[in-house]
């Protein structure tokens, strides 16, 4: 075990990293964050912030010399940096697992190799691949293999001509062409796995998206059979990769079938509810798995609804200048927990924070979240009403 007051290293300084730093501090650890942004949310509260590129040799040397173990906050950290650090200290998750999750082609090939359920797809590496793709893949979604997130780097294509045009717009970057499924629901499972193979799953969340960005997550998921099936698949994935750390797996529900959408080798936005509704949060689990500590208890003590707060909220009804929302409306709700990420500039589509409403039952938590969402004018009425109807 790596015990406090050891120093831990984190590659990535966004809001997920900020929560990791807080969890590590609560357990008595020090944290060094590597992130090129001098105003990164995690870097601002870390014991030390290295404002340098993720492959900067001096910064990596410093982390190798001062840290007892290394983790990552997002999947697009160069796998080579993780592999280099792993030569001298524990890195969890490892470079191989991160490299699978950071490339859609590698990820889907891994899933297909083990016969795990995924939507029909084809790799697109040149224009000829579009012409050779199965006609049944249309209408489909063309997604860049790397660096796409929150709806970025993907577009719906109804035919080959649209797919070719999109491939050109993406600069001929490797892509996957995935059949567009008629989704009924989207689920996610966040789990932690330690170096001995022990796994702890958090309750599956049902997720609603807006413009490709997660908008609302709620637990418990009303369909226990679906949640259990998703958890089994997520555990199998972690075991197949010999994964150590926190892993998030997203799923599509189509009829009575569940398909794996994608994996994230880190805590996940849909797991933010664990900060307030569980005995152990996903971020404390990340620290525990990294340091070889016994994993914590992931059980819920409350139903929860998590709502993202995007930068759009700062601009109200088409206002040109950003204004701080009236947080009194949220803070007046006794069973609501507000989390702001400390980002200096609000921009439309940027995740600035979230709030979680707790309750003894999911229906009452959704009802409260709906009322709060309406009061601050964040445009969530329709989507939360959908959640309430479930």
Automatic annotation (TrEMBL):
It catalyses: 5-amino-1-(5-phospho-beta-D-ribosyl)imidazole + hydrogencarbonate + ATP = 5-carboxyamino-1-(5-phospho-D-ribosyl)imidazole + ADP + phosphate + 2 H(+). PANTHER family: PHOSPHORIBOSYLAMINOIMIDAZOLE CARBOXYLASE, PURINE BIOSYNTHESIS PROTEIN 6/7, PUR6/7. Keywords: ATP-binding, Ligase, Nucleotide-binding, Purine biosynthesis. The gene is purK. It comes from Rhodocyclus tenuis. Its EC number is 6.3.4.18. This is N5-carboxyaminoimidazole ribonucleotide synthase. The keyword Nucleotide-binding applies. One of its GO terms (molecular function) is 5-(carboxyamino)imidazole ribonucleotide synthase activity. GO terms for cellular component: cytosol.
